[in-house]
Amino acid sequence: MIEVTCAIITNEEGHVLVTQRSADMKLPLKFEFPGGKIETGESAEQCLLREVKEELNLEIEIVSSLSPVIYHYSEFSIRLIPFVCYIKSGNLILREHASSSWRSIDQSLLDLDWAAADIPIVREFLSTRN
């Protein structure tokens, strides 16, 4: 079981940042909330701050957490730990992803081609916004 974090980064305009995995990554070109694997001795929160800085050049503030998701892909299993965040500083630079965009926080988020483990997180996040 791989322990992974993800950041649901929101802004004041009511949008959320989504990223698209590169063609070279596992689950190529699927959309996801950015994050990454927890390293030995690291808390989930520390992991998220580090991964977002490494992958997106952003400093974030964690606001709250959502329910972790356990998902079994054919080649591996993950426990995905989501956090709702906002940007404190930095300019977005994609270092690993194919693309990113700010999307309205509404049901149209579900229209994206998400990595399967992210789908329950999208649904829970949307349910907390109503």
UniProtKB/TrEMBL annotation:
Keywords: DNA damage, DNA repair, DNA replication, Hydrolase, Magnesium, Metal-binding, Mutator protein. It catalyses: 8-oxo-dGTP + H2O = 8-oxo-dGMP + diphosphate + H(+); 8-oxo-GTP + H2O = 8-oxo-GMP + diphosphate + H(+). It is an enzyme of class 3 (hydrolase). The keyword DNA damage applies. SUPFAM superfamilies: Nudix. CDD domains: NUDIX_MutT_NudA_like (cd03425). One of its GO terms (molecular function) is 8-oxo-GDP phosphatase activity. It holds the Pfam family NUDIX. Its EC number is 3.6.1.55. Residues 1-127 form the Nudix hydrolase domain. InterPro entries: MutT-like, Nudix_hydrolase, NUDIX_hydrolase-like_dom_sf, NUDIX_hydrolase_CS, NUDIX_hydrolase_dom. The keyword DNA damage applies. Its cofactor is Mg(2+). GO terms for biological process: DNA repair; DNA replication. Belongs to the Nudix hydrolase family. PANTHER family: 8-OXO-DGTP DIPHOSPHATASE, NUDIX HYDROLASE FAMILY PROTEIN. This is 8-oxo-dGTP diphosphatase.
